[in-house]
What we know:
Elements: H1 2-21, E1 33-36, E2 41-43, E3 47-48, E4 55-63, E5 70-77, E6 83-88, E7 92-98, E8 101-110, E9 118-120, E10 124-128, E11 139-145, E12 150-152, E13 160-167, E14 173-181, E15 189-192, E16 198-201, E17 209-218, E18 223-225, E19 229-233
Parallel strand pairs: 2-10, 12-19
Antiparallel strand pairs: 1-4, 3-4, 4-7, 5-6, 5-8, 8-9, 8-10, 11-13, 13-16, 14-15, 14-17, 17-18, 17-19
Amino acid sequence: MKMTRLLICIPILLLVWACGGDNDQPAPPSAPQLQFPENNSECFEGVVNSVNPNVSSIEFRWEPASNASSYQLNIKNLISGQMRSQTTSGASLAVELDRGTPYSWYVEASSSATPNETAQSATWKFYNAGEGIASYVPFPADLIYPPSGASLSLNGSSALDLRWEGADLDNDISDYEVFFGTDSPPATSIGSSGTAQQIRVENLSPGTTYYWKVITTDQQGNKADSEISEFRIAN
Length: 235
């Protein structure tokens, strides 16, 4: 009888041990926290290229993310729309950029232990300082609502408010003009909101996809086009 009890207990203990081991999964990386260049700022700390004075080297910095083994730095020229990406194992990277030009940037953290899971930082904007700039072009507006690609139910209504955020180093934004329609890119202006960062659109149809963008103008006449956003009104 004693031998029978022992034989039964051993498989049960092995089963408990095996089940417990399956819970030790590697944790994915956390989202990096950006440090420099600061958001909506002008960067004066770049090292000007001795051969080409129109270019300077900027050291991008962020806080190390937990469980991350590598980072991808993504930088977008907000005038040309060109995106460039570089990978590093550290929490900083120096990159040469055109001076007198606005950029946006973000960092994506990866881990060799969880290769299918990444974490992305917030996206920041800055100007790489240049010589003799008397007036800065506004940053392109960030289109906030509806989120691009969203499918919306208006619950019996046929109108909604488009919302965005704008910024300008000179703090002299004078006007936002909104282009809206069913074609991409949207070619029809639905008017100006002045300095308000929202505008109402009406007579929206179920089952229809709409596209919109915002052109920001400052008091010097400088203009900046946002990216194009789209959303669909659900049936």
